[in-house]
Amino acid sequence: MSAEAANGEEAPVRVTEVAASEALSLLEGEGLDTDVAGLRLFVQQGGCAGLSYGMRFDDEPEPDDAVTEHHGLRIFVDPASQKYIGGSTLDYEAGLQAAGFHVENPNVVSECGCGESFRT
């Protein structure tokens, strides 16, 4: 089942229930209104492979953002980032050595050894 953007198109990213739950908990811990605020997922220049993912909480979306809701979490993606992460899934992984958000991106043709940057 895929989420839809506000304009009826398929959502640029999917979010697992675990990732949404973790992000909502963090949003609430920051005192943000989860009905308006959300998690911004973006792509920026950097890293040894050329591009890297970025995430931050925003109080509200920008006018040209794709805005979707997944398991109660609002996701904001700007138009420039959409072309790099379209079809991706945001997940949360917890392990013995580390825990954090991870983007599974079908557009990636190569990643650096640490998995922090990529090339499409």
TrEMBL record:
<dbReference type="GO" id="GO:0051537">
    <property type="term" value="F:2 iron, 2 sulfur cluster binding"/>
</dbReference>
<dbReference type="GO" id="GO:0016226">
    <property type="term" value="P:iron-sulfur cluster assembly"/>
</dbReference>
<dbReference type="InterPro" id="IPR016092">
    <property type="entry name" value="ATAP"/>
</dbReference>
<dbReference type="InterPro" id="IPR035903">
    <property type="entry name" value="HesB-like_dom_sf"/>
</dbReference>
<dbReference type="GO" id="GO:0051539">
    <property type="term" value="F:4 iron, 4 sulfur cluster binding"/>
</dbReference>
<protein>
    <submittedName>
        <fullName>Iron-sulfur cluster assembly accessory protein</fullName>
    </submittedName>
</protein>
<dbReference type="Pfam" id="PF01521">
    <property type="entry name" value="Fe-S_biosyn"/>
</dbReference>
<feature type="domain" description="Core">
    <location>
        <begin position="15"/>
        <end position="116"/>
    </location>
</feature>
<dbReference type="InterPro" id="IPR000361">
    <property type="entry name" value="ATAP_core_dom"/>
</dbReference>
<dbReference type="InterPro" id="IPR017870">
    <property type="entry name" value="FeS_cluster_insertion_CS"/>
</dbReference>
<dbReference type="GO" id="GO:0005506">
    <property type="term" value="F:iron ion binding"/>
</dbReference>
